[in-house]
Amino acid sequence: MMRLSVRRSCALALVAALAVLLRGTSASAQDSSLTVRIGLTYAPGTKPGVLVLPVSGANGDSIRAILQRDLDYSDRANVIAGESLVMDTASDAGRGRFNYPLYARLGAAALVQATMTATGLHVAVHDVRTQKVERVKDFPLSAVGLSPEWRQQVHAIADAIEFWVTGVRGIAATRILYQSAGRIWQVDSDGANPAVVTAPGGLAQLYPAWHPKATHFAYVVMTEEGTRVRIAEMNGNGLASPRTLPARNGSVNTSPIFSPDGQTILYAHGMENGTDLYAAPVSGTEAPRRVTVSRSMDAVSPSYSPDGRRIVFVTNRPGGLGLYIADADGTNAEALTPFNFGDKSQRTDPSWSPDGRLVAFQAEMGGAAQIYSVSPRDRGSPKQYTSEGRNEDPSWSPDSRHLVFTSNRSGSWQLWVLDTETGRVRQLTRAASGAKAGAWSPRFMIH
Fold this sequence. Notes:
The protein is mostly beta strands. The protein folds into 2 domains: 22-166, TolB, N-terminal domain (Rossmann fold, 3-Layer(aba) Sandwich); 174-440, TolB, C-terminal domain (Neuraminidase), CATH 2.120.10.30. It has helices at 4-13, 60-73, 83-94, 100-105, 148-166; strands spanning 22-23, 39-40, 49-52, 78-79, 108-116, 120-127, 132-140, 175-180, 183-188, 195-196, 204-210, 216-223, 226-233, 243-244, 252-258, 264-271, 274-281, 289-290, 299-304, 310-315, 322-327, 334-335, 347-352, 359-365, 368-374, 383-384, 391-396, 402-407, 414-419, 425-427, 436-440. Helix 2 packs across helix 5. The model is unreliable at 1-37 (pLDDT under 50).
């Protein structure tokens, strides 16, 4: 998506805790076909305590560390640590016994027991209150140990555990695209394994966007003839030859986004007299279709509603940079964020949450950009999430709770992750050349 507040000139010219009762049907640890899910009842603002036991075998320490970190980063569980407790639980597990009263006193609602098998990981989740195993499953670990693909498989296991314990599937098995050092990169949701995914080409590569099935991604390349939109396949090493959408020499083509069904790519296109949104088929040779009519002004940085029926975009129609919402074909456009003449704020970079409830955006307030959200339904007062440094480029996670954004709070431009419910922030990237324009992937289908 186009980040107008920091690149408008280029465009115009060119996201102890309280543990309580678990409930569910008890089951034998040998019943891997069990379908019941642990359900937790706890007060708003609190999190169930989860204790992950040590994992023996090859890479067992890494598996436990990843599971603990993923559950912690979910912001829905309180991961209980402590090596003395770890040793007690490891000893108990070895004898087939568990000190449930001790775990309960320490705040644990759930106990995660993972055991290496010949083909993967056998996971049992214990209900500490009822002192029984509530869910078990065997997960494959088919990739080479400690490889990026192997780590994604472990992330997927963490997501399943989070679903069993909280009722919400996790977002650990996802990745974030971003721009750095003139190329497009990706990084795991926990900040591990940053890797470039595009071959060299053009003056700079910018503004990545994921296909809804995570099989492809789009980005913008700056060339001597203007900016161009490219679509590339995510094929493991990410360096497949991209397809460039046709465009006139000297034209601006930027801020691409895929429709939720993956059939259409929407982007901004224009010359010196303004930019408009155009829709083109992801595959095929059909000519792009004009969506907005800005009459020598600008329409850029679109984002689709999750059902694909509406779009939100940035325009300077009211005299400043503001957000408009419209039907997907460009009709029935109206202001999402009101603009008052004399208002110096600029509202840009919209990102529609996957659950459809909120639109995140950045706004220039008091001379610094900060991250906000607003409801597209009631359009009440925006909620502010950040205040430290300059913060831009929000992109929602699949759980509609977390945002990845760009910030200079550490002294250089890097990606950070925000939990919109608690306000917790963590640094995602530490790129030597800086990182910007993060785009959160959908959940990967990992088997």
